[in-house]
Each structure stands twice: as structure tokens, then as C-alpha cells.
Amino acid sequence: VQLVESGGGLVQTGGSLRLSCAASGFTFSYYDMTWYRQAPGKERELVGKITSVGGRTNYADSVKGRFTISRDNAKNAVYLQMNNLKPDDTAVYYCSVVWRNINYWGQGTQVTVSS
Questions:
Q1: 32 has a pLDDT exceeding 90
Q2: Pairing state between β 33-38 and 45-50
Q3: Measured between alpha carbons, how far is residue 39 from residues 20, 31, 32 in Å?
Q4: Which of 11, 33, 62, 115 is least surrounded by CB atoms within 10 angstroms?
Q5: Model confidence over 53-90: pLDDT tens digits?
Q6: What b/e readout covers 12-38, taking b as 16+ CB neighbours within 10 angstroms?
Q7: Please, what sign has the CA dihedral across residues 79, 83, 89, 91?
């Protein structure tokens, strides 16, 4: 299993970024995918999740209405569209999958929101 995040960067408050996660090593369409983030000095927290069937999504309250998760099963990719970014969104963002009861993570991509 390999997960590779990309798309992070530096953005001003109110700006947007789209993160991507390229997945390989498993049958992508069969699995729910989750985005997490970890800010400096804080624990890793769940951002949101998209299901394998139906592409249903749910989000942490802190990002609801601003972030959107989508997936493209043909490309084995999951995306995190982030709008109206705030300084509190500054973190390393990770995609994750639980495969054969093991939680796999990518290397993460840094998002920094300047005030």
C-alpha cells in the first residue's frame, strides 16, 4: 500500500488549495478514504472521510462547509478541496486507508495559511 499526498503550500487567509492523494497497492474503489491533519504541537485529527460505495462524505465540524472530499476511482485518487482557509487550518495533511486492519498513511503535505 502506498499513499502519496501533494498540493500543499502557502496560502493567505481566505484562499483555497486542492490536495491530492494518489493510492496504489490495493483495490482503491473498495475502500473508504480518510483525510487527517496534524498541527504543530497537536494530535492528529480527522478532517473527513469518503466512503467506497456511493462516495458519501462526512467532515469535522471545524471544516464543514469549507472543505470537500471527492474521489476518482479510475485514477485511484482522493482529493481534498479546501476553501476559505484560516490560519487554524495550518497543518500537515495526510490521507489514510485501513487495509487488512492496518492503518496506512502517506508522508503528508504541508499547508500553511498566513494571516
A1: yes
A2: antiparallel
A3: 19, 26, 24
A4: 115
A5: 889 999 999 999 999 999 999 999 999 999 999 999 99
A6: eeeeebebbbbbeebebeebbbbbbbe
A7: positive
